[in-house]
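Long-time lurker, first post. I've been practising inverse folding by hand and with some scripts of my own, and I keep getting stuck on stretches where the structure tokens seem ambiguous. Below is the full token string for one chain I'm working on. Before anyone asks, I'm not after the true native sequence, just a reasonable design that respects the backbone. If someone could post their per-position residues I'd love to compare against what I wrote down in my notebook.
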């Protein structure tokens, strides 16, 4: 991720990031994750949700200010 950020920041063109991320929520209403994940596992995965953590990474990299984020 850092290499892709540096590449794009240097205006060398787009960067493709292939990331393995957790899926903290069910795919659909018919997929009940409570049947195969413990409460602790679900809570841990929710804290690692990339939709939430990505904004914090951008702030760490000084890409933008947190106040400019919605949510």
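-- Answer (accepted) --
I ran through it position by position. Result:
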């Amino acid at each position: 991720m850092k290499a892709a950020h540096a590449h794009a920041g240097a205006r060398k063109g787009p960067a493709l990031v292939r990331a393995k991320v957790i899926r903290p929520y069910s795919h659909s209403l018919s997929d009940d994750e409570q049947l195969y994940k413990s409460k602790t596992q679900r809570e841990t995965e929710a804290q690692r949700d990339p939709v939430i953590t990505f904004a914090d990474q951008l702030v760490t990299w000084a890409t933008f200010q947190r106040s400019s984020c919605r949510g």
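A couple of notes from the structure itself: Helices lie at 2-9, 39-47, 50-60. The chain has a mean pLDDT of 82. Happy to go over any region you disagree with.
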